Q: What sequence folds into this?
């Protein structure tokens, strides 16, 4: 989302310097700082909704009696837990 902010000169200079040193965009430096301040979590783990793969719905398990434990079912399907 685009927005316009009026920031103090010293803040913008610090943002520009950091962006140049880290070879990053200024908007990414500002967004990361705001996420940290607002407690929105680690930026490295943040993913776009567009990056999420669809999950097939209504898939039937191969054999309901294959195992009673969830771990057995996950192992049989190749999932890591």
A:
């Amino acid at each position: 989302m685009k927005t316009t902010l009026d920031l103090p000169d010293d803040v913008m200079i610090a943002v520009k310097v950091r962006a140049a040193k880290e070879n990053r965009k200024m908007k990414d430096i500002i967004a990361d700082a705001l996420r940290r301040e607002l407690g929105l979590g680690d930026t490295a783990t943040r993913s776009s909704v567009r990056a999420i793969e669809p999950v097939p719905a209504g898939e039937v398990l191969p054999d309901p009696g294959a195992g009673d434990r969830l771990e057995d079912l996950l192992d049989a399907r190749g999932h890591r837990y």
In short: The radius of gyration is 22 Å. The chain has a mean pLDDT of 76. The chain has three helices and no strands.
